[in-house]
């Protein structure tokens, strides 16, 4: 299932959180060879994890980590502005209506549908929380993956060549993408909404009922 | 119903505000333009100091302080250190002290519906902008669907203004428009279409959209037309 958890609530999901940071070390350091910090517990963390970001985590049936990603609003410090100024030509992206998505990670044990479920979670955030845009930096191999998942970004700019080529993309919400991604991920919109409501609360039951309950 | 012209007027008034108490008048206008019962702006800084501008009755404001309701109010606990907008229906109103708080709030005229925008400012500053209204769920669904983006932006603009009035505040780096943003607004201002602007600047329309979005937020504007007007009136863009 999908869980939406702010960093300061990860302590209630200690095992899941540990597995996420370990899988991030595995993906970004071991498999992709990025220059990331891995601590004594084998966890990969950076300074943005200390800013109370929102994580979306795919929890596998046995309670372990299947995949995850991280969101922060571009009104505060974000990687695209701090680390990749070349990609914005020195114009920092800053708006409460644009969130940055980083550390898109899949566990080695994850089934093929986890990436699709995470993409659906991104659309669920956009739909429910009135966030029309996400920004993100990604490498070339992701372009095809986003397309196959059914939700491609508009490429704003790119730098580097060949395998080192990275791009800044902007995703914009649209309802067709929501249904397309749900179908490809084989998660019904109803179930996806239910997972979202389990984390964020539901707008369906009126206050008066809840007051009585 | 909030029209663009009315919203623009609120933002112009906000821009012209020169002292903290002026925010009260802005809050009052927000209520009338959005046709809602209440709006409030609540500031919490890293020293734990609070202040508040809003339309709740003095009795409710006083009672809220006396009973130290910030500890119980699920809007405060559910928004603190968050950054997503919160529909009050999503909060947990089930614990007994919260139910009693809710009853008390209702008796003092707080709306049964509400929508809050948490705002993370610099150096641990935190603010909350909320609107509240008496209405049923279907009406509130429609209201939030129609207005949430404007409310998110207004909340951030209010907070930016409030930060200007901080006495010991370290001067913020001013956010001037970048040359590209200036070019884009200037060309739009003289009547170019987005496609023509993109072509003239040799950028894609997608890139142009990012420039406009970012310029709009820097200028405290809700839409492109307003952003152009603001840039012209500040002398940043000359048409």
Notes on the protein architecture:
The complex is a heterodimer of chains A (213) and B (239). The model of chain A is unreliable at 206-213 (pLDDT under 50). The two termini of chain A are 27 Å apart. Chain A contains seven helices and seven strands; from the N terminus they run βαββαβαβαββααα. Chain A is 36% helix and 23% strand. Chain B is an alpha+beta fold and 239 residues long. Chain B has two domains: 4-164, Transcription factor LuxR-like, autoinducer-binding domain (Beta-Lactamase, 2-Layer Sandwich); 179-233, Orthogonal Bundle (Arc Repressor Mutant, subunit A), CATH 1.10.10. Chain B has helices at residues 4-16, 22-34, 58-66, 74-79, 96-107, 137-164, 179-189, 194-200, 205-219, 224-233; strands at residues 38-44, 50-54, 86-87, 113-120, 126-133. Classes of the chains: A alpha+beta (213), B alpha+beta (239).
Binned strand content of chain B = 5-15%
- Report the mean per-residue pLDDT of chain B as an integer: 89
CATH architecture name of the largest domain in chain B: 2-Layer Sandwich
Oligomer description:
heterodimer
End-to-end distance of chain B: 32 Å
The greatest interface here is: A-B, 43 and 47 residues
CATH superfamily of the largest domain in chain B: Transcription factor LuxR-like, autoinducer-binding domain
- Form type of chain A: globular
Structural class of chain B: alpha+beta
Arithmetic mean pLDDT of chain A: 93
DSSP strand count of chain B? 5
Determine Rg of chain B (CA atoms, Å).
Answer: 20 Å
